[in-house]
Amino acid sequence: MALRDKMLLLLISGLDISSNEIPFLRDTYIESKTSVQQDYEIVWVPILSGQWTTSSEEKCVKLSQMMSWYMIEHPNFISENTKKFIRHVWKFKRRPIVVAIDENGDVVCRNVIHMMYIWGPKAFPFTPLRERTLWNSAKTRLDSLVFDFDPNITRMLEDGKWVILYGGNDFEWSRKFTTQVHKVLSDARILAEMIYVGENIELDPQSNSLDLRKVGYFWTRLESILISRYQSFSARDSGTDPILGEVKKLLSYKFADTWACLRTASSDSMVHGLGDVMLQGFMKFEMRERDFQTKEFAKEFQNHIEQLTRGSSSGQACRRIVLHTDDRDAVESLKCPSCDHSMEKKIRYGCCHIDEIE
């Protein structure tokens, strides 16, 4: 039998699994089979909440055609007791989870989807120990995790270019920011790429724009980084973990009017902040060409941005972090990325009018 004596990853979802999520899991699966040849298989376990209809059959077929792995023979073959176990023990509700089961049939992790989003095939064999090992590796740097979600961006950095991600929906700020940055870097003979990360892809013709699928992946991956980091180290936010602190700031930008994040090819750190502060930073910071080529430049520029933030009104603005997870205890509490206060925890409901099976 093809699945005997192999590690299994059970992809558990409803038929409303996003068609944007499947390609990233598929890329990890294909890479693990071609470049590193890891001995595991994925099995899709679709969980239905209602009756099997012609519509649900069409959706099931369409989704299965996007997948490169196994699927249970038919969703109706899953008993109600099995569904109850999956919901109560493995905590599946609506958002997809991936349960890792070793060769002996033992569950080694109830949900490895965050590991897969962050590390890809490197997460094998998908155990909590492997997750901590990856976090503790000297090769693990937050700037790499944030920027390597797109092979094109990775190539830009390898070519010695600066990469500036920015977002928001303020056209006037976008125009001023891109114009100022292009001028400063052009005067200093620095090659750079500016990439818009947002839904308003027509905002600025001077920059490249990520397609909406990659925009979603960018934010989802940051959420996974936060959850993984939080759960891998004592499951608490003491306010002293620099990686967790930076991820919280980055995630809070999703709901900001404007923001930007810079990574230089020669540095192992990022410079990021809210839009008005980053614009001031490029206008006021004394740019000297010799500074750009040193690893210290990014740190000095980030210190400059933080000083501007403390003196700006946007630095006092409320921060919001939204985690798209069904597990309310995935992250029990967080400290504000701008101050030392505990953030208020809320429940938010939303609907994007997906045709669900209920």
Automatic annotation (TrEMBL):
Any one Pfam family match given in the protein's UniProt record, by short name: SEO_C
Instruction: Please cite one Gene Ontology biological process associated with this protein.
Output: phloem development
Location of the Sieve element occlusion C-terminal domain: 130-353
InterPro entries on file:
SEO_C, SEOA
Tell me the protein's name.
Sieve element occlusion C-terminal domain-containing protein
